[in-house]
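Researcher: I've been going back and forth with a colleague about how Protein kinase domain-containing protein might be arranged in three dimensions. Neither of us has a model we trust, so I'd like an independent prediction. The organism is Dovyalis caffra, in case that matters for your notes. Sequence below.
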Amino acid sequence: MVLSAVKGGGRDGGPAIFSPLIKKAEDLAFLEKDDGVANLEIIGRGGCGEVYKAELPGSNGKMIAIKKIIQPPKDAAELTEEDSRLLNKKMRQIQSEINTVGRIRHRNLLPLLAHVSRPDCHYLVYEFMKNGSLQDLLNDANEGRRELDWLTRHKIAVGVASGLEYLHMNHNDRIIHRDLKPANVLLDDNMEARIADFGLAKAMPDYKTHITTSNVAGTVGYIAPEYHQTIKFTDKCDIYSFGVVLGVLVMGKIPSDEFFQNTRELSLVKWMRNIMTSENPSQAIDPKLMGNGLEEQMLLVLKIACFCTMDDPKQRPNSKDVRCMLSQIKH
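Model: Here is an independent structure prediction for Protein kinase domain-containing protein. You can compare it with whatever you and your colleague have in mind.
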């Protein structure tokens, strides 16, 4: 079903629907028109294309987000080697997205509602997340446009850990996300974290200890060192990325922040480790969070972040242990 849908064979049968939120295929008929998204608000742009916001017809105001993935031309005469490579990459990412989030449901994962295939593009339909991404929220907080207090940051951390626990331990086969970062953590109306963007995700059967890929995928600053070195990934690679996200939540800085380029370590993880063993570990905490009496909690989370980003993956905790450690921090 997935292959035929991605290749366009499902067009005659209409959209592939994965959620009861969409009552009938006709609700997505507007996406099968040539100008289906022409008048919609663009809420994001990524490597694969634009993301639009729309009201789901017949849903009493339910908002959806529509990711448009444009296909390069399939005519062999027109297709350059670069276009061909891009086409294959995009098709793999659509397949991965459908294979994973099309069949999983958890409160901390962003559900794929439907897939609409057209001759020139694909539409992936999701619930609209009112509060945007964690990356957007951190940027706004740093620039004073929104507040992001410690209790909310901690709630987000627990939510992401819960989502990872489901992917790694409660789902058969295990699913490795491979690109966990603040931009891929969305926030719903209640600031509940939803892990999103499964374009690089891989299912790993229980009998396998790792999967080898042809090249390293992910985002610089969040990629586990052993994956860089061996091109083999496990669920502990996701744990490393999550450790970086924890560091970002407490420090208010992302790995590419200019701050780290001016340090001796040139790295968020190495700087965090050194500060945590210094005489004044509190200097790692986002200054906006200081003075609320919760600094000890934040230092505990930074210790968990250091634990998650150990160089040896065997020394990192699993996602259940991380979720338990974070949940035990009481305000």
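Researcher: What would you highlight for our discussion?
Model: I'd start with this: The chain has a mean pLDDT of 87. After that, consider the following. The first helix runs from residue 2 to 7.
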